[in-house]
Amino acid sequence: MTTAELVVFDFDGTLAHRPGLWSKCLVDSLDTTRAGHGIAVEDLRPHLRSGFPWHRPEDVHPELNDPEAWWDAINIIETDAYAAVGVTADDELRRAVRDRYCDPELFELYPDTIPALERLAASGVRMTILSNHVPELASIVTHHDLDRYVDDVITSARIGVEKPHPKSFRIALGAIRPERAWMIGDNLVADIQGAEAAGMNSVFVRHPDSGGCDLLCAVRAVLSHSGDPLITGEQSSR
């Protein structure tokens, strides 16, 4: 029997993916508000590589815990990125970005997401999502019916702290001892190193350095664990 009491999942890149992420969202929002704009994803991407809260995970940001405050901060980043490519953002465009990024239909589950969660649910292990994400993450999770499996959805936009900050993992753990919990994610620093620094086990998935491990591979590792060290970020990144 597994010693796992809790499995914590990342969301983007682990359970689901949103093609193009922020840069494509900004271009798609231009498509709906500024026809013929001529801006490509490649034009915007360099201007979105900094500024987001998760780019400064060492800084807590409780002042952004309110969704409107969070989006006000993100709007500044979007406005600056648009300005860098010659576009003046207005309220209509900023609303379009928010609506489009939060559209749950634009997030796609991986084929093995539901089978992996069903297997863990059948074992009786508790599951939580911990993600550096938008305030509306819970509604995206519910739309895809993942709330049938997970007990809690924790997004950095609501708790004021980003992975790999240790506080984020403490919130996810609650009363669970770290050695009885597993983090499954696709980001070596935010998910794997962050979880291990908090004393948790980890499984690195869906990344070129993860040795081809997907969610079903990760779940098998968790359920077969008997107390020896599991797959760590260092091991799986070789």
In short:
This protein has eleven helices and seven strands.
How is this structure best described in words?
The chain has about 240 residues and is α/β, with parallel strands linked by helices. It has 2 domains: about 5-15 and about 105-235, Rossmann fold (3-Layer(aba) Sandwich), CATH 3.40.50; about 20-105. The protein is built from 11 helices and 7 strands.
For the record, the count of structural domains works out to: 2
CATH architecture identity of the largest domain? 3-Layer(aba) Sandwich
CATH topology of the largest domain, anyone?
Rossmann fold
Number of helices: 11
**What best-fitting shape do the alpha-carbon axes yield?**
globular
Which key terms come to mind for this protein?
238 residues; alpha/beta; Rossmann fold; 2 domains; 5-stranded parallel β-sheet; two-stranded antiparallel ribbon; 11 helices; 11% strand; globular; disordered C terminus
Layout: helices, strands, pairs:
Elements: E1 6-9, E2 16-17, H1 21-33, H2 41-44, H3 67-84, H4 91-101, E3 108-109, H5 113-123, E4 126-131, H6 137-143, E5 152-155, H7 156-159, H8 166-173, E6 181-185, H9 188-197, E7 201-204, H10 215-224, H11 233-236
Parallel strand pairs: 1-4, 1-6, 4-5, 6-7
Antiparallel strand pairs: 2-3
